[in-house]
Amino acid sequence: MKVAVVDSNGKDTGRKVELSKDVFGIEPNNHAMYLDVKQYLANQRQGTHKAKERAEITGSTRKIKKQKGTGTARAGSIKSGLFKGGGRMFGPRPRNYSFKLNKNLKRLARKSALTVKANDKAIVVVEDLKFDAPKTKDFTSVLKNLGLENKKSLFVLGEPNNNVYLSSRNLKGTEVVNSSELSTYKIMNANSVVLFEGSLEEINTNLSK
Question: What is the pLDDT of residue 131?
Answer without folding.
Answer: 87
